[in-house]
Amino acid sequence: MAFMDKDFLLTTNSAKAIYEEIGSLNILDPHNHCDVKALAEDRGFQDLWEAEAATDHYVWELMRKCGVAEEFVTGKNTSNYEKWKALAGVFELFAGNPTYEWIHLDLRTRLGIDLEINAENADAIWEQSKAKLQTKEFSPQSLIIAMNVEAMCSTDDPADTLDYHKTLRGESSRIQGRVRPTFRPDNAMNIEKPTWNAYVDRLGKRWSRNLDTLDDFLDVLAQAHAAMGELGAVASDHGVVTPFAQQLDKAVAAELFKKARDGQKLTPAEIADFKGFFLNEMAELDSKTNWVFQLHYGCVRDVRKSLFDSLGADVGGDISDHSIEVVKPLLPLLNRFDNRLKVVLYNMHPAQNATLAMLTRAFGANVCLGPAWWLNDSYIGIKTQLELGASIDLFSNMTGMVSDSRKILSYGSRFDVYRRTLAGVLGDQADRGQMSLKTAKMLAKRLSYDRPREFFGF
Fold first, then answer.
1. Of residues 89, 84, 29, the one with CA closest to residue 51
2. CB-CB contact of 36 with 168 (8 Å)
3. Distance between CA atoms of 331 and 359, rounded to whole angstroms?
4. Rounded to whole angstroms, how far apart are CA atoms 356 and 113?
5. Is the per-residue pLDDT at 431 higher than 90?
């Protein structure tokens, strides 16, 4: 098989036949980190670095691992061309990592550039890509149309004005109805953060309310939730380390809220109690609107102190911890909302795939194992999650794929790797006689399109 050819990841005739059925289906993306402002403005990319690496901490981490100086990764006094040359100079060392495959796929499928990324080809790729990226054909909205993105859910804070979402639903937008907000209230939940009080002030200012009581706080969050619903939102999203979801009397939560607003420090137990109360309140909002409650757990952030001190958050340095408890903290919420809340669980560590699959099996069709997330988002991670998840729960109960991406250019590649991996997993089972090829094709289409469309209500 040639490098990144049309049969990339497809090693059997059954896999190829299945992929033929799903490869060109429209994309439904329930979770990403797209720049809604850039989409609304529809401004083109000035060059390949901006399109592929300027916001991608996956790329930054690997460049650092290959010994590239920070000035050529995030430096403000280094040109995009110099950064691209540094990236291309070490790119061959990325082989085996999914970033190596994604970016090559981007070049081949979107930009029509078949050159391997290396030092020798760096200038040719730079010039060819730059000539295309600066045209209207490769603006963000044009890419969304070209990649057949039918629906995509951004990540939005309750304090956001949502003005750019409104623009995207207006007459000037070429992608009306495709971009939906997602209610992501982590900043409101993280009561232990030194920035929490300032954030609550900002949230109150956004909605013209003084947030002095828990009731005021919850009312404003419900107002933000409803405002996103008016703009097409179908889901909330919550990022936690441990998924505390224990039940707490509202009067106790109100005391904790007041204590934090008064600048007093909460104990670890009080923080966990407040977060558990908060998640249950947000789940109640979702239950009443039939939204999907998405829970991403297990990420331990900013473990590399020198990196955080010099550059801040979201620059690389986040890891998972397989020892994080999930069952005991999460059961109170799952039982409280049994049969009245749609839930998707995303784990960052593959060691917990089996536990989550057992949990989703126990709670029926409304509780689902999400796709392989973050550093599991690779051929190996996706394959492992599909095989183990289906052997315990069901292929048919999974919710498809999410891009989880900050890069518009990469959406198609992320979904293509998923669909090719899915075709291979189902093709192997058909070849082993575990299911018919007809059933394998049905499941492939279900996971690639029908299931997310039905479950999220696109």
1. 84
2. yes
3. 9
4. 40
5. yes
The β-bridge partners of 179 are: 152
* Three-class secondary structure assignment of 357-368: HHHHHHCCCCEE
pLDDT for the residue numbered 349: 86
Strand partners, 411: none
Q: What pLDDT is stored for residue 267 in this prediction?
A: 98
Gap between the Cα atoms of 155 and 33, Å rounded: 6
Dihedral angle over CA of 211, 216, 220, 226, nearest 10: 180
Q: Whole-angstrom Cα distance, residue 98 to residue 379?
A: 7
Q: Which residues contact 90 (CB under 8 A, 6 or more apart)?
A: 63, 66, 67, 68
* Pairwise CA distance, residues 239 & 64, whole Å: 26
Angle (deg, nearest 10), helices 411-431 and 379-392: 50
- What is the spatial distance between Cα 439 and Cα 454, in angstroms, rounded to a whole number? 19
Q: Is the pLDDT of residue 1 over 90?
A: no
Q: Cα–Cα distance between 231 and 177 in angstroms, integer?
A: 9
What CA–CA distance (Å, rounded) separates 341 from 64?
Answer: 42
386 φ/ψ angles, rounded to the nearest 5 degrees: -65, -50
Token digits of residue 20 = 């033929």
Query: What are φ and ψ of residue 198, in 5° steps?
Result: -65, -40
| Residue 27: half-sphere exposure toward Cβ, Cα within 13 Å | 29
Element of type H or E holding 186:
helix 186-189
User: What is the average per-residue pLDDT within 180-204?
Assistant: 98
Of residues 206, 192, 150, the one with CA closest to residue 175: 150
How far apart CA 420 and CA 7 sit, in angstroms, is 9
Q: pTM of the full predicted structure?
A: 0.96
